[in-house]
Every structure is written in structure tokens, then in C-alpha cells.
Amino acid sequence: MLDQLCLLHKFTVMIKAILSITSIVLLAAFGLRIYFVMVPPPEATLTQPLSVIVPEHLDGWRVRTIPMDQSPEAAARIENFLNFDDAIFRVFEQGDTMIGLYIAYWTPGKTSYRWAGVHTPDTCWVLAGWVRKERESAVPLASRNTELKPAEFGIYVKDGIAQHVFFWHLVGGEPYRLNQHGTHNIWASLVDIREFGLNLRKEQFFVRLSSNRPLEDLERMPGFDAILASLTEIGLELRPE
């Protein structure tokens, strides 16, 4: 009899704990709903299609617009989850030099930062079979007339082909680094809340600039500045503090 009473007491305590947790979750959900109703997302800054912003013609270069389903991001089989509002993948070729510019865009509140973050080569390229050989953060990127915000940088190799990759994940116009390699960071949602609080509806861009040539070679090539200059129109220009 005493054992049964002890079990009943434990069961009652457990039920109360579950009900308390459920109440907290429901109150939090209700509070978030009120917040999102009362506080609208910020205005979008992108006012024209990315296909207009990125050069379609460049003197001395062959320019091709590549279907999104032929990008490494699509090869990683994650493009169906990305749900972007606009995207473009253009390739610039001159002789044996190739530059690829990939941009994806999400309007304010369209997707979580953690889902947009899977665009990074550390995740999608690695999942598509590339091997990361080098990796740096806060790398300066500039040409004759354009200086961009510090980039994430890596060298990735597949089938003997190396690509020098600069990339940015812009959240509300500022570079945001979500550290993940090969698989999605399951704690990323908590990281988002820690970094941004409830303000999780900022506009987002993912930008990837890749080439089979190192930056020192590209900086000497006419036309490279025009490619970088197009990125200033989406907020990547480095401005004085």
C-alpha cells in the first residue's frame, strides 16, 4: 500500500511538472504571436531583381547565367528547403579564368537565419562532395575602386579542381557567421535567439564569389572591379564607422 502511495505521489508530481512546462510553452508561444502581430518586420532594401544588379555583359568576358539547379547548392540537395525570394548564379569566363557569383535573397521574416545559413560552402559544398582545404574569417576583399565588408574564405577541392571561395551571409545588412561544417547546426536556433533576441525577421542575403584563380590574379584583371561593384548595391560595401 505504501509503495502504491509513493508511486501515486511521483505520478502526481510528474503530471504537475508536465502541466507547468506546457503552460510556460503556451504562454511563450502566445507572447511571440503578440510580438509578431504588434511589431512588423523591417522594410526590404532590395528594390530590383538580382538579375539586373549583377552584370549580364562585361567587356572581354563571356557571361553565362547558370540555372539554379546546376549550382553546388542544388547538388547538396538542400535547395528545396531554402525557399528564397530571388536568386541568381552567373559565371564570368576569360581565357582559363572563371568567376562564379551566386546570390540568394530572403525578404524580412521569410526564413530563419539558421536555414539560410546552410548555404555556406562549409555545409552545402561539403555535402556535395567538396573537401575544405583552407578556411579563414574576416578576410578583406577589394579592387581598384571597391572595398567590401570582410568575407568568410575557404579553398574547396573536388575532382582535382580547387575553388577559392569568398562568401557572406548578411543578416539585416551585417555579416553573420553561423559556424557549421558538413551538417546543419542543431543548436543554431538557440544561437539566433542569443544573438538577436526576438528580432529574427531581418532581411537576408547569401553571397558567394568563387574562382579557380587566387584573389591576387583577379585584382589585376579588367572587369573584376565591375563584378565587385555590383555587390555594393546589396549592402556589401565597406563603409567608414
Characterization of the model:
The structure is a single chain. With 241 residues, the chain is α+β, with helices and mostly antiparallel strands. The chain contains nine helices and eight strands. The protein has helices spanning 2-38, 50-53, 72-75, 79-82, 113-116, 124-127, 188-196, 215-219, 224-231; strands at 62-65, 86-94, 97-106, 131-142, 147-158, 161-171, 174-175, 204-211. Residues 25-33 have low confidence and may be disordered.
Specify the overall morphology. globular
Rg, alpha carbons: 23 Å
Spatial separation of the terminal alpha carbons: 74 Å
Q: Beta fraction of the residues?
A: 25-35%
Major sheet size, sense and barrel closure: 8 strands, antiparallel
Number of strands: 8
Please count the helical segments: 9
Mean pLDDT: 80
Q: Percent helix among the residues?
A: 25-40%
Q: What is the helix/strand order?
A: HHEHHEEHHEEEEHEHH
